């Protein structure tokens, strides 16, 4: 083997991170998550979420989710977070973190905008270590972020479950 050059380094990269609170019917979504994690097509303990989880497409056609995400869609357009691409909601799922459950460090590379919405009060926090940001768990709290940003949670020590929604917007004209 001949290696002419080997570089392992870091480069600066533009990203976005937006945190806020949405007006969302948390009780409705918690009830729907409970239904989704009981279905045969669930993703329970099969993904980066070491917890119960609905199918990735479970909320994709849910009109209440689309209504709740309207302000986010407007923000994406107004701030050109979509980088002038033609985009649409491609994944929308719910999860339930119970005692000792957590989210492995991962990212959503491939999307153009990713998001998380918290549905109940809980002590578990979503961390974004590369940018030193976090999202605490209060009903309606949300984060929108560049999909390449890694994020995770630590294991919860609470016996009260934490519920949340996650979603991705993708460029629909990808080659």
Textual characterization of the structure:
Helices cover 15% and strands 35% of the residues. It has 175 residues and is an alpha+beta fold. It has a domain at 38-108 and 149-159 and 168-175. It has a 6-stranded antiparallel beta sheet with strand order 1-9-6-11-4-3, covered by helices on one side. Strand 7 and strand 8 form a beta hairpin. The chain is globular and about 55 Å long. 34% of the residues are buried.
N- to C-terminal distance: 34 Å
What is the radius of gyration computed over CA atoms, rounded to a whole number of angstroms?
Answer: 17 Å
- H/E element order: EHEEHEEEEEEEE
Count of helix runs: 2
Oligomer: single chain
**Shape annotation:** globular
**Portion in strands:** 25-35%
Residue share in helix = 10-25%
Average pLDDT value? 93
């Amino acid at each position: 083997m001949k290696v002419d050059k080997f570089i392992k380094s870091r480069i600066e990269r533009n990203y976005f991170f937006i945190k806020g609170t949405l007006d969302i019917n948390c009780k409705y979504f918690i009830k729907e998550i409970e239904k989704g994690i009981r279905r045969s097509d669930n993703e329970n303990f099969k993904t980066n979420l070491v917890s119960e989880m609905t199918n990735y497409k479970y909320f994709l056609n849910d009109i209440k989710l689309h209504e709740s995400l309207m302000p986010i869609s407007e923000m994406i357009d107004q701030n050109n977070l979509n980088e002038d691409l033609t985009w649409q909601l491609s994944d929308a799922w719910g999860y339930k973190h119970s005692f000792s459950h957590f989210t492995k460090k991962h990212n959503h590379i491939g999307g153009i905008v990713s998001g998380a919405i918290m549905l109940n009060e809980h002590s578990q926090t979503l961390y974004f270590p590369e940018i030193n940001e976090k999202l605490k768990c209060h009903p309606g709290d949300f984060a929108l972020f560049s999909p390449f940003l890694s994020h995770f949670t630590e294991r919860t020590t609470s016996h009260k479950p934490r519920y949340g929604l996650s979603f991705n917007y993708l460029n629909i004209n990808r080659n």
